[in-house]
Amino acid sequence: MKCRVCRGPAVIDIRRHNANFCEEHFLKLCRDQVTRAIEAFDMLSPGARVLVAVSGGKDSLALWDILLALGYEVDGLYLGLGIGEYSDASGSHVRRFATPRGLSLQEVDLRSEHGFDIPNGSRAAKRPPCSACGLSKRHLFDRAARDGDYEALATGHNLDDEAAVLFGNVLRWEGEYLARQFPVLPAGNGFPRKVKPLVRLGERETAAYCVLRGIDYQVEECPMAEGNRHLGYKAALNAVEVQSPGTKHTFYFNFLDRAAGLFRDQMAVVDPGIGSCTRCGSPANGEICSFCRLAERATGAGEPVQLESRRKDGVRA
Predict the structure, then answer these.
(1) pTM above 0.85, yes or no
(2) 29, 183, 252, 286: which one has the fewest Cβ atoms less than 10 Å from its Cβ?
(3) Contact present, 229 and 312 (Cβ < 8 Å)
């Protein structure tokens, strides 16, 4: 197996590209694919200050490393979710990446700073764990990006993630979520700009990138994600990808090229805009934002407030 670029020994084959790559040219391919995504969707200006949401997994750590290599000023933000040994290990992986490199890492501990963790909070609020987790992440990451005056909040959503979320949303024709199925969400209504620079790379590539770069990452899946429909959608698309390499890429990028604009235009008509939470100042559809409602229910503070329901397999911002 020889590298397509230099004809030296290859370390990985990428079937959707019908090509093999040596270590040097595979790492270059990953960085080039991120550059291509950033340029194609006008994600970031040269040298921008970026906040990366890091979990300790392969995608977010690979993203942090690649953005640094591309010359961006990048800080990390880790959210301690209180999911037992899983969270302990995740935090350790993030610190082992950031500390030796002298990188700026912000940490927010959900339990000590907000009075609840995901296992207890989801039970108290009667929300699925993935729903409570996603809500908490969105709120705290958004606030940190806004307060830190970063140009953008970058997340490690890769091609596999986006194709699986799109698959689930198309199965149910979730117009609201499909309107947000885009690699860039512009700032507005109090929300920071959000970007997904890994949309041209799959999970296998980000894992290989970390291995070749010597980045130690959290391999285990979150124990609370068992049964999440998103994982089932991934498995279904993986089965199709085995038979027809490139299917996930074609599915996702053809949606962006041919259909995404239709849903975004629809949302532009019906979205009335939102106000601010009276408790924390974050964007809110009502008087109190969803995160403060979750915290209220989880900690037992104040009168219980009815939480609006959200499907746990909906598009993540």
Answers:
(1) yes
(2) 286
(3) yes
Element (H, E) at 185: strand 184-185
State the Cα–Cα distance between residues 157 and 193, nearest whole angstrom.
15
The answer to whether the beta carbons of residues 276 and 283 sit under 8 Å apart is yes
- The Cα-based distances of 124 to 83, 222, 226 in angstroms read 15, 20, 19
CA angle 117, 123, 126 (to 5 degrees): 125
- Kindly give the interhelix angle for 290-299 and 129-147, rounded to the nearest 10 degrees: 120
Cα 157 from chain centre: 4
pLDDT confidence tier of residue 176, bands split at 50, 70 and 90: confident
In the beta sheet, which residues pair with residue 77? 53, 106
Q: Considering only CA atoms, which of 68, 263, 234 is closest in space to residue 162?
A: 234
Q: Which of 163, 136, 101, 112 is nearest to 224 (CA)?
A: 136
Residue 167: which pLDDT band, with cuts at 50, 70 and 90?
A: very high
Contact by Cβ (8 Å): 66, 88: no
Distance, in Å, from the CA atom of 182 to the CA atom of 178, rounded to the nearest integer, reads 8
pLDDT given at position 286: 86
> Could you tell me the CA-to-CA distances from 3 to 8, 15, 66, 201, 271 in Å, in that order?
5, 13, 21, 18, 49
CA pair distance 188, 131, nearest whole angstrom: 23
Element (H, E) at 284: strand 283-284
Buried/exposed 142-153: b ≥16 CB within 10 Å, e otherwise: bbbbbeeebbbb
Residue 44 near residue 71, CB atoms below 8 Å: no
Tell me the three state secondary structure of residue 68: helix
Tokens found for residue 72: 């961006």
| Paired strand residues for 194 | 153, 185
